[in-house]
Amino acid sequence: MALNKKDFYARTMHTPDPPERAALRAGLREISKALIPLHRRLIDVAKDDYLFAFGPVGSSAQLIDLVRTDPFFAWLQPVTSLIVEIDEMVRTDFEPAAVAGVAARVEELFVSERYVALLQRDVEVAMGHAALRKALTELRHRLSVRVV
Asked: pTM, whole model, 2 decimals?
């Protein structure tokens, strides 16, 4: 399959941003910066729970495989997908409506019973959640300023 240079750049590059989009792009990066360490901590806590329920996880590669395929970790997959989506979005042109959709998805991810239980029991999860909420509030503010 021949690589079409124009399609490649359209998918991986973005045109210079007007100030409004630059602010939204920066907000998305802040969401990602808060979401990644929270995601890592959620994996660590879930791994500890997995150890208690099923036994130890061998290597890092085995943990990655479990997170990708084991039903015990399935609740983390939407978080992983959102991180990937955000990271791809900040590298390309996007519509402001897509940013609003990301903000809504972030809100939806963290209302599950499993997440709320971890939020209440683990200080690092609570701190990561606070950082994410702050970044989300700032992103929503940038969205509202843009709309006005």
From this structure: 0.84
Q: How many Å apart are CA 40 and CA 118, to the nearest integer? A: 13
Q: Is residue 1 part of a domain?
A: no
Q: Tell me how far apart the alpha carbons of residues 93 and 13 are, in angstroms, rounded to a whole number.
A: 7
> Which amino acid would we find at residue 76?
L
Asked whether 45 and 118 are in contact (CB, 8 A), the reply is yes
Q: Report the Cα 69 to chain-centroid distance in Å.
A: 19
Closest C-alpha among 75, 77, 24 to residue 49: 75
* Residue 9 placed within a domain: no
Question: Tens digits of per-residue pLDDT, 72-113?
Answer: 999 999 999 999 999 999 988 888 899 999 999 999 988 888
Q: CB under 8 Å to 4, separation ≥6 — which residues?
A: none
Cβ contacts of 7 within 8 Å, gap of 6 or more: none
Give residue 117's domain range.
Answer: 19-147
Is the separation of the CB atoms in 139 and 31 below 8 Å? yes
How far, in Å, CA of 90 to CA of 126, rounded? 26
| 119 inside domain | yes
The reply to whether 66 falls in a domain is: yes
